[in-house]
Fold this sequence. Notes:
Blueprint: E1 2-11, E2 31-54, E3 57-77, E4 106-120
Antiparallel strand pairs: 1-2, 2-3, 3-4
Amino acid sequence: MEYDAHLKMALMTGYSHFPDSTTGIDPTSDFLSNSFTQTDTDVLDIYTSIPFERANKNHEIIAGVMYHKKNEDNFSKSALSSIDTSSNSVFSWDSDVKEPSWNKKSRTEQAKKQQNKNLLI
Length: 121
């Protein structure tokens, strides 16, 4: 299974200030994020059940194998410009904000995970 995710986020009210309580305007954008994730996952599960009778009681042996491999590449872009939100009040915001210019994407993380399990019950 393969999938790609593309996320853009702007945090319009910072960590230490809030929009003006009368106008609802906050003229700053403290955090801009443009991130991409590319994921490739391979999964295999095989199980079998072997019922049997012993000493006039029913029993069952269950055996299985599980394999899971996941490769994930994370990329991000930093903003070259900020967002001007000086005319957007939180009371009447219509989400019409001009997107900033972005730097080229760079790899922020690359993860490879593999798990194998054998089961006998």
